[in-house]
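Look over both lines:
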Amino acid sequence: MLAAASIAVAAAAARGEGGGDGAPRDLGALRSWGLVGYSNAERLGTVTQLSAGYDHLAAILPDGTVACWGDNSYGQCIVPFGLGPCTRIAAGGRHTLALRADGALRAWGEATYGQLNIPPSVGAVADLAAGLRHNIVARTNGTVLCWGWSSNGQASPPAGLAGVVQVAAGGYHSIARRADGTIVCWGSDFDGESSPPSNLAGVIDIAAGLHHSVALDSTNRVVCWGDNDWGQSSPPLGLAAVADIAAGGLHTVVRKLDGSVACFGDNGVGQSNPPFLPIAATTVHAGLQHSVAVLEDGSFVAFGRNDLGQCTTSEDMAAPAKIAIGSAHHVLVDIEGKVRCIGANQFGQSTPPFWLSHPAAVGAGAVHSAAIAADSSVVCWGDNSVGQLNLPTGLAAIVEIDCGAFHTLARGTDGRVTAWGWNGFGQCDVPRRLRATARVSAGERHSIALDAALRIVCWGSDEQGQSTPPAGAVEAVEIAAGNFHSAAIRPDGTVVCWGRNDLGQCDIPKGLRRAVALAAGYGHTIMLDDLGAVRAWGDDVFGQVSGTALLGISTRLESGIWSAAAFEEPCADSPRTPADCACGPIQVDLNEDGIADCLSFRFGDLDLDGAVTAQDLAILLSNWGDSGPLLGDLDRDGSVSAQDLAILLGRFGESI
C-alpha cells in the first residue's frame, strides 16, 4: 500500500535512479495525482506567473510550461499531457484555468458545476480569473464572459458591461475593472462584497476573496469591503505605498513599492505571517489559508497552511529520484540525495532528520515515515503512538522497507523480514516459516511477502479476504498491499486481486497488457504495462483512477491511500526529437556517444517513419538475441527477445 521505494521496471538500475553504480539522473517529469498531487513541480526554479487557488498553486515557468501542486482532490494539479506553452494561469477552488500561447483556453480539475465547459465563443482573451466554482475572462474587445456555478449570479455579468481590462473571481461574487479605473461587482452581496465604496475611483488593481473584495487605487492606497469578521477588510493604519494586492479566504496580502510584504486578517495557520524575504517581492498571491510572494529572481516563498503541500516550493521538489506516498504526505529523495517531504506534518511525518541523506529507499505510512540510510540501517520519524518508531534491536543490513498505515516491514540482505508498530491484527507477526523473501508489502492491517520461490505469503487481518490469495495465485513477481485488498503480478504478466471489492478495486479491466509494476491504495489499484501506460481501477473519489488518463509514457509508479504518482519519460533535446512528445518518445543513448537519442521505438516504430512496418521488423530481427541499449528492446529488459517481437507485431501496420 504505502510502498517504500518506488517500484522500478526493467532497466531502472541502468538508468541510475538510485542504487547500483550509476550516478543519479533526471528521471523525467514526476506526476502525482489523487488527494495530494503535482505536475512539473520538480522544475520549479523560477516562475514567470503564479496563481494561488483555495488549496493548490499553479505557475508558469520561463519556457511556458505549467506546474501545479497541492490539493488534488479533483485533479486540479494534474496538468493535461501535451498542454503546451501557456501565457496566463488562474487557480480556482478545485480547478485550474490556463491560456495557451496559441490563444486557446484549457481547464482541468473539478467539473461539477461546469467550470471546465469552456464556451466555444471565447475569442481573444486579455485577462482571466478562476473563482470557487466559476471562471471569468476579459476579452481584448473589453467584454466579459463567465461560466460555471452561478448560484448567486456570480457567473452572470451585468448586461452591456464593456471596457473591461481586468477581472477577479471570489467565492460567490465577481469583479471587473474598466480601463477608466471604475469597477463593477456582481454576484453575492451577503457581506457587502459586491458593494464597493461609492467614492472609489482610479482603481489600478482588484482582488476577490471568499467573501470580501480589495482594490488598489492610483495613489497606491488599499480599499477593502465585504466580510470583516477576521479583519481581512481592515487595512492596518499607516499602510501606504502599496503596489500589489491579493485576497485569500479570510485574509489579505499586499506588496509595497519597496518590495516588502504585509498581511492582515485571519492568521490561524500563519497565512498572515510572512517570513523574512531575502530580496524584494514582485507579486503576491493568496489562497484559502496560504499566501505566496514571488521574488525578484523569479523564486517564491509560500507560507500558511501546508497539509496538502500547497506551500511546497522548488527547494522541496528538486528533481525527485525516489518517492513514497502516505495518507496526506509524500517523502521524496532528490537526485542529490536530499530527503524532502511535502503535505501533512501534524505528527512530524514531514520533518525528516536533518542529517539524513542519500537513503537507499523511503517509506510513508499514515502519519509516520521511514528510510533506509546509506549504511543500510533504518531511520523513522513522525507519530509513535503505536510504536511506529520503535526499531527492533539488531535491525541492520536492510535492503527493502515498506510502511503500512501504522506498521513497517523491513527486508534484510539475508531475506528475513522484520516488522514493528501496530500489531492489532497480527500484521507484525511474521510467519516463522518465512525465512527468505524477495519482496515485502504492508497494508493497513495485513502484510504480504514473496518467499525465495516467489510464492505469495500473507499474514495479519483477513476480515475482507485480503490475506487469502485466490486459487491459482500461488506465485508472483510483484505484490502490492492496499488497505483492505491485495494485488499481485503473476509470472506471465497478468494481474490478480483479492480482498475487499466494494469500490471495484479488485475488478481488473479486460484487455490489459503485460504488467511490469503494481501499486494499491485504499480502494484503488494501479499498474504499469510493458508499453509504459498506467492503468487504474477502483475508487476515484480524488481522481486516483481518472488521473491516469493525463499521463504520458511512464517508467515507475507509486500509490498511497488516496494518491498516486508516476515518472514520465523525459524527451531528449535533439534533432531526432518528435515535435509533439505526446507520442511518448524514450530517451536512450543507443550508440553510446554521450548524447541521448529520443525515439518512438517503444511503440515499434524503430526507423521513425511514422508507422510500424516490415522495415521495423527487420531492424528488430537484426538485433535478435543481443543485449545492451539496442533498437528492438521494446520492453527494455536488456535484450531483444520474443517478448519484443510480440509487442511489435501487436502494433504492426499502425501509424505512430
Notes: The chain has three domains: 17-23+314-568, 45-304, 581-650. The CA atoms of residues 46 and 297 lie 7 Å apart. The helical segments are 314-317, 614-622, 642-650. The domain at 17-23+314-568 is CATH 2.130.10.30 (Methylamine Dehydrogenase; Chain H).
